[in-house]
Each structure stands twice: as structure tokens, then as C-alpha cells.
Amino acid sequence: QVQLVESGGGLVQPGGSLTLSCAASGYAFRADVMGWYRQAPGKQRELVAISTISGSTNYVDSVKGRFTISGDNTKNTVYLQMNSLKPEDAAVYYCYASSIHSGAYWGQGTQVTVSS
User: Fold this and answer.
1) At 17, is the secondary structure helix, strand, or coil?
2) Which of 29, 44, 80, 92 is the most exposed place for a label (fewest CB within 10 A)?
3) How far apart are CA 20 and CA 6, in angstroms?
4) 51, 33 Cβ separation under 8 angstroms
5) φ, ψ for residue 62 (rounded to 5)?
6) What is the spatial distance between Cα 99 and Cα 33, in angstroms, rounded to a whole number?
């Protein structure tokens, strides 16, 4: 069974920074894609940033220039450095990992609150 464990959420003031971390574990699991989604109350879950084993990354337009995804798909770790946070970034952030051999998996979610 593959498990994704997230950490790093919390309360931050507008303009502040947070770093989210995620580690995936599971026998013989090797992620092809890892990333982060978020879901705010009353809204659909949306892609925030994704990273592939080939090294490519993709971001939702609203976070470009402020968020940076990093990590190592071969080690099943992914991070999301979030700078210049805005109130509209507040949401539950979910780690995502997928493998063509094992399927797709989600973390339990970590709350990010942006408020003064």
C-alpha cells in the first residue's frame, strides 16, 4: 500500500511563506508524477503544481512566480515552496503521486491559512 505523508501547513500572514513537504512510501513504488493540489471551501480541487520524473514542471497561473515545486521523484519526495502568500491561497493542500505501474495516490491534506 502506498502512503503519502504531508507536513508544513499552518497559519501565515499575507505576504508570508510556507513550505509543504510530502513523502511517499510503499513497496516498489516509484512515482512518475508528484505534485500538489488544493481545495478551498466551496470550490473544486485544483492543480497547483506538478513535477514529472523527466524534470518538467507545471503551475497553475495564479501561483506562477510565487510557488516553486521541487523534490525527487526517484526518492518519492516533493516540496512546495510558497512565497508571497495571498488570502486566496488558503485551502487544504493535497500531495499527489502517480505511477503508471501502481496508480494514483493522495495525501490526507494539510491546511494552509493565510490571514492577518
Assistant:
1) coil
2) 44
3) 7
4) yes
5) -70, -15
6) 7
Per-residue pLDDT tens for 73-95?
778 899 999 999 999 999 999 99
Comparing CA positions, the residue from 51, 32, 49, 34 lying closest to residue 99 is: 32
Residues pairing with 51 in the sheet: 34, 57
Angstrom distance (rounded) from CA 90 to CA 41:
9
Of residues 95, 105, 82, 88, the one with CA closest to residue 37: 95
Name the percent of the chain lying above pLDDT 70: 100
Distance CA 57, CA 1 (A): 26
Q: How many CB atoms lie within 10 A of CB 40?
A: 14
Q: What is the CA radius of gyration of the chain?
A: 14
Give the CA distances from residue 92 to residues 28, 36, 80, 95, in Å, rounded to whole numbers and listed in that order: 28, 10, 13, 10
Nearest to 99 by CA among 74, 80, 71, 70: 74
Other Cβ atoms within 10 Å of 42 Cβ, number:
5
| Phi, psi angles (nearest 5°) of residue 63 | -115, -5
